[in-house]
From TrEMBL:
Name listed for the protein in its UniProt record: VacJ family lipoprotein
Source organism per UniProt: Agaribacter flavus
Family note: Belongs to the MlaA family.
Keyword Lipoprotein annotated: yes
Segments of skewed composition (Acidic residues): 253-264
Length: 272
């Protein structure tokens, strides 16, 4: 199984590289590829690469109309109804704590030693004082969670997302993120924990993620094409995470230039 997963990583990285080359060719064919705006548009086109759409749509219909309707959503609603919020918070804190070693490594691989140290500090504090992570003591000490997965590391390294994937039972993904998930599973302590603990942690994560989407589910139901809605939101979120929330933000130089241009425009109007 491990050899199969490692082979999957190699194939996924190759597909990601091919997609990155495809996106680069699209950008070069643009008449104004030298501008920042068109580079951004080329990047968006690469991230929305969906050659498997016919298959993805079939899987989406199964996930949402069958699996979610008859299993995941009912289980989630039942879990939320019977489980007290403090218990839910504690269990989710424990799940997050198991991810801190991965956050530590993935942050350092992105050249963020400060965030890596924060993740390591959170793991040490919450695993001891926080009773195996049930209590987020590190949060009260000012150590904010710095969540990073290996898929984001690949994105920072310049690896393209690859084809969009709708995975049975797992939902939206892409080749790069799927590869990152496989690598993250090889980080300690996932490699030494018993299977029931790993399965329980994954189930809690899935249920809490589904619970967080209940309030915004109406937006999905109102969309003209639910598949495209989910895909677009997924890639917007992915770009936001890889850029650490800097997508669409203007630099100080751009803001100052816009202010100067507006002042010149005002002066021109006053001259008339």
């Amino acid at each position: 199984m491990k050899l199969l997963q490692l082979a999957s990583i190699v194939v996924c990285l190759a597909l990601g590289a091919c997609t990155a080359n495809h996106a680069e060719q699209q950008a070069q064919s643009s008449n104004q590829a030298g501008t920042e705006q068109n580079r951004s548009e080329a990047s968006k086109q690469a991230k929305a690469y969906d050659p498997l759409e016919p298959v993805n749509r079939v899987i989406w219909d199964f996930n949402y109309d069958v699996l979610d309707r008859y299993l995941i959503k009912p289980v989630t609603l039942g879990y939320v109804a019977v489980m007290p919020q403090p218990v839910r918070n504690g269990l989710m804190n424990a799940v997050y704590n198991l991810e801190e070693p991965a956050n530590t490594i993935n942050n350092i691989l992105q050249g963020k030693p400060g965030d890596s140290a924060t993740s390591l500090g959170r793991f040490l504090v919450n695993s001891t004082v926080g009773v195996l992570g049930l209590f987020d003591v590190a949060q009260s000490m000012g150590l904010e969670r710095q969540e990073e997965d290996f898929g984001q590391v690949l994105g920072v390294w310049g690896v393209g997302t690859g084809p969009y994937l709708m995975l049975p039972g797992l939902g939206p993904s892409d080749v790069r993120s799927f590869t990152g998930d496989i690598v993250d599973n090889y980080y300690w302590p996932s490699t030494v924990l018993d299977d029931p603990i790993v399965i329980a942690a994954n189930l809690i994560s899935v249920i809490e993620t589904r619970a967080s989407l209940i309030e915004v589910e109406e937006n999905l139901n109102r969309s003209l094409d639910q598949y495209l809605f989910v895909r677009d939101v997924y890639f917007q979120r992915l770009a936001f995470d890889v850029s650490d929330g800097k997508i669409g933000q203007k630099s100080e130089e751009e803001i100052e230039q816009e202010a100067d241009d507006f002042s010149d425009f005002e002066s021109l109007l006053e001259g008339q």
